[in-house]
């Protein structure tokens, strides 16, 4: 999900939503070329912020944070059960609520807000812009493109984002070699059915929220699979 430039802004701040009406900015009569230039600059700055998909970014951030929290709670529950299999409920609750990695949660939340939410929103708008008709061919093409383009991009970005926060960018190539392909293959088993539902039954405005919600279950599934 590259942040492609477009007149000084990012793609997801500039891409016109299908069906959105853009009203031209009213100009005052007898304005000079200098004032016109200033108006264009101000208008560009306003669209730069106004077109950012804040709702989708916020939803993605909250749900990636939820997914990370569920994963951390499960990890602590499994670790506590192995150490003290006959512990009381009070001890289990105490263990679950302690030692939460807030920096890890912040990493996931900022990834959802800055990258996953806006990037996926632009991706789905682009697909609907290119293939607006709800035909079987278009749906199949969207599912295929989601898996061969969006899936690898998401994995590449989240690995890079995580290693950037950890200060381990030098280890990123080995991380890709070790974990990227297995993660992608596991993802195919989960995301292909989810993507079909996303494109056939979910409206455009709710697709980022739907995919982010599914990512909560994906995080739990992945954690369960890797802990076997």
Walkthrough of the structure:
Strand 1 and strand 2 form a beta hairpin. This protein has one domain (54-226). The chain contains eight helices and two strands; from the N terminus they run ββαααααααα. It is an all-alpha fold and 228 residues long. Helix 3 packs across helix 5 (102-130), helix 5 (102-130) runs antiparallel to helix 6 and helix 7 (172-201) packs across helix 8. The longest helix is centred in the middle third of the chain and has 31 residues, at 136-166. Helices cover 75% and strands 2% of the residues. The chain has a two-stranded antiparallel sheet with strand order 1-2. The model is unreliable at 1-20 and 31-40 (pLDDT under 50).
Features:
75% helix; 2% strand
Overall tally of structural domains: 1
Tell me the distance between the termini. 31 Å
Rg over CA atoms, rounded to whole Å, is: 22 Å
**Average pLDDT level:** 75
Structural class: mainly alpha
SSE series: EEHHHHHHHH
Largest sheet: number of strands, sense, barrel closure:
2 strands, antiparallel
The assembly state of the depicted protein chains is single chain
Low-confidence stretches: 1-20, 31-40
Subcellular location: Membrane
Transmembrane segments: 106-124, 144-164, 184-202
Biased composition (Basic residues): 19-28
Membrane topology: Multi-pass membrane protein
């Amino acid at each position: 999900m590259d942040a492609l430039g477009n007149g000084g802004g990012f793609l997801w701040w500039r891409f016109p939503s299908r069906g959105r009406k853009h009203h031209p900015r009213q100009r005052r009569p007898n304005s000079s070329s200098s004032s016109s230039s200033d108006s264009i600059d101000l208008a560009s700055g306003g669209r730069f912020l106004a077109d950012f998909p804040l709702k989708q970014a916020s939803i993605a951030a909250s749900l990636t944070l939820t997914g990370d929290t569920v994963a951390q709670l499960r990890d602590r529950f499994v670790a506590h059960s192995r150490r003290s299999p006959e512990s009381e409920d009070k001890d289990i609750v105490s263990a679950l609520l302690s030692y939460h990695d807030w920096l890890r949660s912040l990493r996931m939340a900022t990834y959802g807000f800055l990258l996953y939410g806006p990037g996926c929103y632009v991706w789905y708008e682009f697909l609907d812009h290119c293939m607006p008709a709800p035909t079987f061919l278009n749906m199949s093409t969207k599912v295929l493109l989601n898996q061969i383009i969006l899936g690898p991009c998401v994995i590449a970005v989240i690995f890079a984002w995580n290693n950037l926060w950890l200060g381990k960018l030098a280890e990123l190539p080995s991380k890709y070699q070790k974990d990227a392909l297995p993660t992608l293959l596991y993802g195919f088993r989960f995301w292909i059915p989810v993507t079909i539902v996303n494109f056939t039954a979910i409206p455009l405005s709710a697709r980022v929220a739907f995919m982010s919600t599914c990512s909560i279950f994906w995080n739990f599934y992945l954690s369960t699979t890797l802990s076997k």
